[in-house]
Amino acid sequence: MWTQLQISLKPRERGFHLITREIDDALPQLAELDVGLLHLQLLHTSASLTLNENADPDVRHDMQAFLRDRVPGNLPYFRHTQEGADDMPAHIAASLFGTQLTLPVRGGRLALGTWQGIWLGEHRDHGGTRNILATLNGE
Questions:
Q1: pLDDT at 17 over 90
Q2: For the stretch 103-132, what's the b/e string if a residue is b when 16 or more beta carbons lie within 10 angstroms of its beta carbon?
Q3: Is the pLDDT of residue 33 over 90?
Q4: Domain interval for residue 27
Q5: Which InterPro entries does this chain map to (predicted)?
Q6: Whole-angstrom distance, CA of residue 133 vs CA of residue 75
Q7: Cα–Cα distance measured from residue 92 to residue 123, given in angstroms and rounded to the nearest whole number
Q8: In terms of Cα–Cα distance, which of 62, 46, 41 is closest to 95?
Q9: Which of 12, 34, 97, 130 is the most buried (most CB within 10 A)?
Q10: What is the pLDDT of residue 108?
Q11: Kind of pairing between the strands at 35-42 and 100-106
Q12: CA distances (Å), 136 to each of 11, 48, 127, in order?
């Protein structure tokens, strides 16, 4: 089976957000697969996807605090400033974390580790709706 669909995520505040359930809910086809792969491509350049801690929200907080320390806004050498002071740092963060994930499917479910979840990194103060292209294949 091959299937592809676009998943729209509601706007979120700047930070890291656990979206595993939203991805699962949007893909009932997962249940049809014994083995396969799910590829997720975030269709934006100022947000990211990553796989990390799914239990303690302090990890998402600390990741955001670390990122803001390493990639602050309003740096005097940034040229790309027409879209706001948060835009260029958002592009840098998206490149650091990446905009895609490929995840295994086993027994009709995503085969994630016990403490793993899919995160959306929203790197803009007002990023708006985010879209993910999901491509699922397997048997």
A1: yes
A2: bebeeeebeeeeebbbbbbbbbeebeebeb
A3: yes
A4: 2-73+82-138
A5: UPF0047_YjbQ-like (IPR001602), YjbQ-like_sf (IPR035917)
A6: 33
A7: 9
A8: 46
A9: 130
A10: 98
A11: antiparallel
A12: 24, 20, 26
